[in-house]
């Protein structure tokens, strides 16, 4: 059985959203800054161990990397529609990214 869940990463530009996703999904890291335009969608499959003789489950995370140049209020509602969760990313060395 496959369970699909949409997760959105939101936050200001240049806080590391794309780097976090690339590290998690592709096991790659680059300190080169690449600005996301619009949205970039990545997928990660996880095999979950069976519990109490239940069948094994495959979890498919559909991870949406939303551009950071647009303020949160202006993000197209369609980007967040159907999401099971969101991860807000900020930079500790840029306080404005934690409050915007």
Q: Secondary-structure blueprint of this entry?
A:
Layout lengths: L1 E9 L6 H10 L12 E10 L8 E10 L10 H4 L4 E4 L7 H4 L1
User: What global shape is seen?
Assistant: globular
CATH level-4 homologous superfamily: P-loop containing nucleotide triphosphate hydrolases
H/E topology pattern: EHEEHEH
Helix content: 10-25%
Give the strand order, joined by hyphens, for the main sheet.
2-3-1-4
Hey, roughly how much beta strand do the residues contain?
25-35%
What structural class should be given to the helix and strand makeup?
Answer: alpha/beta
| CATH 2nd-level architecture | 3-Layer(aba) Sandwich
Q: Give the rounded overall mean pLDDT.
A: 87
Termini, distance in Å? 39 Å
The Cα radius of gyration reads: 15 Å
């Amino acid at each position: 059985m496959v369970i699909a869940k949409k997760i959105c990463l939101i936050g200001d530009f240049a806080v590391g959203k794309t780097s976090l996703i690339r590290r998690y999904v592709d096991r790659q890291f680059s300190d080169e800054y690449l600005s996301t335009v619009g949205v970039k969608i990545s997928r990660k499959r996880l095999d979950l161990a069976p519990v109490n003789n239940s069948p094994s489950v495959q979890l498919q995370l559909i991870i949406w990397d939303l551009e950071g140049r647009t303020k949160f209020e202006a993000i197209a509602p369609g980007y967040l529609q159907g999401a099971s969760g969101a991860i807000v990313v900020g930079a500790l060395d840029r306080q404005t990214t934690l409050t915007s």
